[in-house]
Amino acid sequence: MFIDTHAHLTFPEFNDDLPQVIQRAKEAKLEAIVNIALDEEAIKQSLKISEQYPSYVFMAAGCHPHEAKDWTIEYETLLRQLAQDKKIVALGEMGLDYHYNLSPKEQQQEVFRQSLRLAQELDLPAIIHSREASRDTMLIIHEENKGNLKGVLHCFGSEMVLAKEALDLGLMISFTGTVTFKKAQPVRDVVREIPLESLMIETDCPFLAPQAFRGQRNEPAYVVEVAKQIAEVKDLTLEEVAETTTQNAKDFFNI
Ligand SMILES: [Zn+2]
Ligand SMILES: [Zn+2]
């Protein structure tokens, strides 16, 4: 069994065939999907999907660094309410994206800090997005960690030194289909070094389809490709990778 720990099922790419997408996920032996909702509208839609597929599609919600400029107190209140009602299994994704800088850096940093504080206050794990911002990401995590921070660096694409630092902080590291890309040898080198117990798998669909499906829409069923690649790199069986990463995800999200 597998768990796709990071999907965006409310994106328009899934408008026409979500039931089939979920069906294929089940056929591919996925046990659960964590759907990431990043604004009020996506949260509404995601709640409906979770009602349709109870104990199968779980929800995480937060403020992506792209949208940091739109963070409001009302949105924070909504996140608190969702946590209270036990509708979300994690806060996020949150973090820093200096590749696109769709929100000013200072605002990204401030919202990331607030999100990390909120995650700890609500006792929820944090899903962290970091692109071309490794130094600031780790600095802010160090400063905001009150000692009970539970987090994952999602869609990991950085070097070993950052992975080591994250592991020292007790963070999990999650990989997408990018580990299967031909040019991704540096990322595969990191996979080899990281203990399986600190590792999770995800698709980040509809983006980042693995090599075998490159150019197509990505979907949760393809998370198996990520697991296969990890098994190959770490010289383990697919079953071992499936079993341990699934258990890791269950423990992390408390599902
Ligand atoms: Zn992300
Ligand atoms: Zn994402």
Automatic annotation (TrEMBL):
A divalent metal cation 1 binds at residues 6, 8, 93, 204. A divalent metal cation 2 binds at residues 129, 154. PROSITE patterns: TATD_3. Pfam families: TatD_DNase. The keyword Phosphoprotein does not apply. One of its GO terms (molecular function) is DNA nuclease activity. NCBIfam families: YchF/TatD family DNA exonuclease. This is Hydrolase TatD. It comes from candidate division WOR-1 bacterium RIFOXYC2_FULL_41_25.
